[in-house]
Design a protein that fits this description.
Order of helices and strands: HHH
Strand content: under 5%
Distance between the termini: 50 Å
Number of helices: 3
Number of strands: 0
Largest sheet: none
Radius of gyration: 24 Å
Organism: Oryza barthii
Protein name: DOG1 domain-containing protein
């Protein structure tokens, strides 16, 4: 996470809070891993770790696809959509009030 905040007390506090949140998340993950031995059987824990590994593999693949996408379609355009025409027909339709029967 990258934030553009000028140096000073506010940025120091933001960094400290971010670090605290990361430490708390790490502690929770560690406690969960230690509790898995009591909660799950060996087979269930193995399947859990395989599923987590597969999830992170897919997440990395998606991240690589996202970071390698062509950016010229998104820079300097007025619209979020690549063509800019998908939302135009909606503006020509008359709007109906959902409470018009009352």
């Amino acid at each position: 996470m990258t934030l553009l905040i000028p140096p000073g007390p506010f940025s120091d506090m933001l960094i400290a809070v971010t670090n605290l949140a990361n430490v708390q998340a790490d502690n929770l993950r560690q406690q969960t891993l230690h509790q898995l031995r009591r909660i799950l059987t060996t087979r269930q824990a193995a399947r859990c770790f395989l599923s987590i590994g597969e999830y992170y593999r897919r997440l990395r693949a998606l991240s690589n696809l996202w970071s390698s996408r062509p950016r010229e379609n998104f820079i300097g355009t007025e619209s979020v959509s690549p063509t800019g025409t998908e939302l135009q027909p909606m503006h020509n339709q008359p709007q109906q009030n959902q409470y018009s029967g009352f």
